[in-house]
Design goal:
It contains three helices and seven strands, in the order E-H-E-E-H-E-E-H-E-E. The chain is of the alpha+beta class and about 160 residues long. It is globular and about 50 Å long. The chain starts with 10 loop residues before the first strand and ends in a 14-residue tail after the last strand.
């Protein structure tokens, strides 16, 4: 028998410790929560992706009564960015959530389906996409989606 240990490095920042680029991306993700359609969960999620060409694309979760027909903010954002700017590498992705009148305390992470979709764009771009998970008072920074999906599904 062999044991393997999988660990994840998460850098934890206060908002004020972020550089201007990261602050802007987090703000764009927070702003995107305003366009969320979440009448069922009342959990508004926004995401923003910084592309290599300097463009920032944002999106939000869109729910549907015919669950699971809705789409998470992360997939809404990256699929739109991929369709609008095919072949342009994704550099950073920020995610934020708002519920019950305020942003959540602790950062949230993408669901499994979103993690797999983000991995696809990492593979297309040939390098990791930095991930910023924003809570009210702190931001987790990860150096790529494999930090959240270490045993990923990939074609061989």
């Amino acid at each position: 028998m062999e044991n393997k240990i999988i660990s994840t490095k998460i850098e934890v920042y206060s908002y004020n410790e972020l550089n201007d680029t990261d602050k802007n991306l987090v703000e764009r993700a927070k702003k995107a929560t305003e366009t969320s359609y979440a009448p069922y969960s009342k959990f508004n999620v926004g995401a923003a992706v910084l592309l290599e060409n300097g463009e920032i694309i944002s999106g939000s979760n869109q729910e549907n009564a015919a669950f699971p027909s809705g789409t998470c903010a992360e997939r809404t954002t990256i699929f739109y960015a991929g369709a609008r700017f095919p072949g342009v590498r994704f550099c950073k992705l920020a995610i934020a959530a708002f519920t019950e009148g305020e942003f959540i305390d602790e950062p949230i992470s993408p669901c499994g389906a979103c993690r797999q979709a983000i991995l696809e764009y990492e593979k297309l771009g040939g390098q990791p996409i930095e991930i910023l998970l924003a809570g009210r008072n702190k931001v987790y920074k990860l150096q790529g989606i494999r930090s959240l999906l270490p045993l990923s599904f990939e074609e061989f």
